[in-house]
Amino acid sequence: MNINKSEKLFEEAKKYIPGGVNSPVRAFKSVGGTPRFISKGIGSKMFDVDGNELIDYIGSWGPHLFGHNPQFIKDALIKAIENGTSFGAPTEIEIKMAKLITELVPSVEVVRMVNSGTEATMSAVRAARGYTGKDKIIKFEGCYHGHGDFFLIKAGSGALTFGVPTSPGVTKGNAADTLVADFNDINSIKKLVAQNKNEIAAIIIEAVVGNMGTVRADNLFIQELRTICDEEKIVLIFDEVMTGFRLAQGGAQEILGVKPDLSTFGKIIGGGLPVGAYGGKKEIMEMISPSGPVYQAGTLSGNPLAMNAGYASLTYIKDHPEVYKTLEEKSAYLENGIKDGIKSVGKNFQFNRVGSMMTFFFTEEPVVDYNSAVKSDTKLYGKYFHEMLNSGVYLPPAQFEAMFVSTAHTKEDLDKTIVANYNALKSIL
Ligand SMILES: *Cc1c(COP(=O)(O)O)cnc(C)c1O
């Protein structure tokens, strides 16, 4: 595969942009090699600047439920741009958008639009702290909630009950207010809650995780989490930035049957434009300014282009509930084909899937939490990734990420991927 132009652009980009990219995972650091510079996306395909055609399973890291540049979103954007790009004053589309979200996600009574998933999770935690008057939060090892300071925390070693920063620039003060629990382990929550009685404002979780690779919360675990939050007056936040509108109209909370107090959204909600949102119980959301004292604002929040793209996506989802059946069928077909390939090479590598979110883990033990996920052979994943890329299949350039099937993926795409998977495994093992 010729990648001369991508190579040249990457060298040029590195002169002016940190690491050559505007978000780190794009740089292929964990798999090695040169990232492809993309010139165009149509349906299930992306085309790089050297003219290579790639079957895309990243979908811009989640937003493209319908593949690249679907006609109905393009139409909505073209129509919106005729009237201007931003007003900094209320518009009617913001009401339509908020109302539609509350219809699709019943736990959301009131919702505030922001510009990214990171903004949504940071603001949701602030709302929870303002509402409860408490400072500490609990997150789970391996869950990602954007790059807010108090989320860039991992579990401290041994006797430490508080977390430690995962990035320079995050203060010890931030780390002291973030406690880290083990995913799918209710005892780790019970312990932290007991040790920090009446100090926990919120527990935030990806109820179906995408950011350590795909891992589903056990039903019992998530029910017990709900009960503990009720008993201890802790705000339960589901971070549905990835899972919202991807797993079902009502996201992970619909498939798990548990209602959080607050939810955060991003990715699909913007139809490919930069959007985030947080919402939930009216009583909590009414704390947000200007109706309450908790400050949160945004110059471009509720931007008309972003709202029209997002509204078109969510309207499509509402009018076509069968998209989830289609996604399930396509994803199950791909899963079966990939698993057959794994069996054919005599391995028991794990393939986790929930709806159209899935991860191939290069470990033979079940992956149920962070500790089991990191048993994966990331070097082998890197080799696999490059074999697949050379066959025209664009997977996440890191082991601990989810890949996505869109409604635009055809049977031909899936079959090509299944063949590429078998060939890749044969060649790397
Ligand atoms: C992507 C993601 C975020 C961060 O969203 P950005 O728009 O990148 O800031 C937060 N939480 C989850 C679960 C995500 O997948």
Structure description:
With 429 residues, this protein is α/β, with parallel strands linked by helices. The chain folds into two domains: 172 residues, Aspartate Aminotransferase, domain 1 (Alpha-Beta Complex); 249 residues, Type I PLP-dependent aspartate aminotransferase-like (Major domain) (Aspartate Aminotransferase, domain 2). The protein has 14 helices and 18 strands. It has a seven-stranded mixed β-sheet with strand order 4-14-13-12-9-5-8, sandwiched between helices. β10 and β11 form a beta hairpin. α3 runs parallel beside α10, α6 packs parallel to α7 and α13 crosses α14. The radius of gyration is 21 Å and the shape is globular. The relative contact order is 0.16. The model has no long low-confidence stretch (mean pLDDT 97).
In short:
Helices cover 39% and strands 16% of the residues. The chain is α/β, with parallel strands linked by helices and 429 residues long. The model has no long low-confidence stretch (mean pLDDT 97).
